[in-house]
Amino acid sequence: MNKIIINTEYISLSQFMKMESLVQSGGEAKQVIQQGLVSVNNEICTQRGRKLYKDDIIEFNGIEYIIN
Known about the structure:
Oligomer: single chain
Number of strands: 7
CATH topology: Structural Genomics Hypothetical 15.5 Kd Protein In mrcA-pckA Intergenic Region, Chain A
Number of helices: 2
Strand content: 25-35%
Low-confidence stretches: none
Distance between the termini: 12 Å
Largest sheet: 5 strands, mixed
Order of helices and strands: EEHHEEEEE
Radius of gyration: 11 Å
CATH class: Alpha Beta
Mean pLDDT: 96
CATH superfamily: RNA-binding S4 domain
Helix content: 10-25%
């Protein structure tokens, strides 16, 4: 599992995806999220503005990331 350190209280799902270079743009993040290809804490998430906090687990393309 990849540990992701953020220096703020939270980060949005689309910002996280761009920050980690999982997508190349906000538009691409919106598409993959709305297609149900991303899960947060083992639940499919279709909200690109979803706030991610410490200990949230994100899964995309078979890879898991945890927010620290």
